[in-house]
Amino acid sequence: MLTLFRSVFFMVCELCGKDVTFCKKVMIEGVLLEVCTECAKFGTEADKGRPNLASPQPVIEQRLERREKRQKQRDVYSDGGQEVLVDDYAALVRNARSRAGMTQKELASKLNEKQTIVSKVESGTIRPDEKLVRKLQKELGIVLKESPPPEVDVKSTSSGFGSLTLADLVKMKEK
Ligand SMILES: [Zn+2]
Fold first, then answer.
1. What pLDDT is recorded for position 110?
2. Which of 15, 21, 24, 60 could form a disulfide with 39 if both were Cys (CB 3.0 to 4.6 A apart)?
């Protein structure tokens, strides 16, 4: 009884000739074949009819890529347009201090800070905190903070689809 059962359900893959218990009907190069699941990958499942001509995969990938870029932009500007410390704050402080004819120690005492703090700021080892920035700007008459460039705001607005209403999107399309 078991033998009969087995012989009925034991099949041979028409492509690779392997004995299998389960065969899939697939179209391979226009021929309908009963093959094993391995070989079925080379064809199109007959049940589903037509083979996959234009796979939608590239489109999806493009969209994912674009979404990723938008998220990256959002991360970069997540400070929300606040003023940021300029990159060359160290040189600015150093130059302004020497223009004023002060030593690091003199500047430090005016700022009510340790000389090592001034030294580290001037070498770029530490970034001055909000309070120290204000004191440095006042004492040296320099600007250590800057607003992000204006085009950043435009980008972060247009990339923030999450906060746009449907009406906004329609408006954007019309442009
Ligand atoms: Zn096979």
1. 95
2. 15
Cα(23) to centroid(ligand 1), Å? 9
Give start-end residues of each CATH 1.10.260.40 domain in the chain. Answer: 84-146
Contacts (Cβ under 8 Å, ≥6 apart) of 57? none
Contacts 24+ apart (CB under 8 A), 127-131: 127/85, 127/89, 128/85, 128/89, 128/93
Torsion of Cα atoms, 160 then 164 then 166 then 169, to 10°:
-50
Residues 6+ apart with CB under 8 A from 160: 74
Other beta carbons within 10 angstroms of residue 85's beta carbon come to 14
Gap from CA of 19 to ligand 1 centroid (Å):
8
Assign domain 84-146 to its CATH architecture. Answer: Orthogonal Bundle (1.10)
> Ligand 1 centre and the CA of 2: distance in Å?
25
Express each pLDDT in 104-147 by its tens digit: 999 999 999 999 999 999 999 999 999 999 999 999 999 999 88
Check whether 91 has a pLDDT greater than 90. Answer: yes
CA of 66 to the centre of ligand 1 (A): 40
Beta strands in 16-68 (DSSP E): 19-20, 24-28, 31-35, 44-45
Distance CA 87, CA 99 (A): 20
